[in-house]
């Protein structure tokens, strides 16, 4: 599989007229070489693969990659420049969304006779997942599924959102997660109107919705799940809102089709929500239906009104996460990680998503 990754990478930069490519984004260094560490770059030519790092990582690199390891002692950019000159590279591609301006300028100053003028994005090369990647993501998902089951026995009125987040993160670490997939979101009551309401010191109260958006990381791969529960018996309005969002969520999964673009997939469930609520609560659903997930928590493809040119293909992984957010009242969201198959969307997230009314 690694050779196929390199073949696609080489095809990309040679088609753009470059002699080699400099890979600097940490997740892409991992994806193409197997090495997991920072302060490292890859230089890929048509027939060679170099990994440039420092003494902190040389032993680790020997264990994780078959690339030729080059140790830098006087600066990463200086060593890269030496390699570029040794390989007689005249035009160098780089990651336009990863190499910052100052670093590009420093490298160009070291290589005045080299054209470093082919900015590329490599993220799309990771969008279709290999079987081994899917298995790693399933392991991350299993950890976050267990964390949700665990938190149902922990959460209660009177404890803070931060306490809930800390308990989930601790549980996931103890069950194999390297770290949280992102800053854990716990938003209760009126704070539920914040789509990215990270856990606060607010105490959870009886009668409130509590939205929890969290994930695990296994071997570098992420899971992403959101569940909303009710602390005690739900009101009729809460039941109505939850039922509406759940229907939109299931509709979003059903609308996933290979060969379709992200705008088309997003549209039916969006219309369903907006027809239901927009007349009374303008702007209650402002984000996209979902996004890709893998070595990063947000990857290609995207499912949103602006994703008309982004196609969904078999073995991509996407989230499906419609929500409703009402300022001054609260909100809720339901999210699964879904595998795109030739027969449509297959949810990998297994945590229950019926309306849970906790006994308090």
Walk me through this protein's architecture.
- The strands form six sheets. This protein has a six-stranded mixed β-sheet, sandwiched between helices. It has a three-stranded antiparallel β-sheet with strand order 7-8-11, with helices on one face. Strands 14-17-18 form a three-stranded antiparallel β-sheet.
- It has nine helices and 18 strands.
- The mean pLDDT is 96.
- By secondary structure, it is of the alpha+beta class.
Numbering strands along the chain, what is their spatial order in the largest sheet? 4-3-2-1-5-6
List the helices and strands in order. Answer: HEHEEHEHEHEHHEEEEEHHEEEEEEE
Rg (C-alpha, Å): 23 Å
Mean pLDDT across residues = 96
| Weakly predicted, low-confidence segments | none
Task: Give the structural class.
Answer: alpha+beta
The strand count comes to: 18
The helix tally amounts to 9
Approximately what portion of the residues adopt beta-strand conformation? 15-25%
Span between termini? 51 Å
Major sheet summary line:
6 strands, mixed
Helix content: 25-40%
Shape: elongated
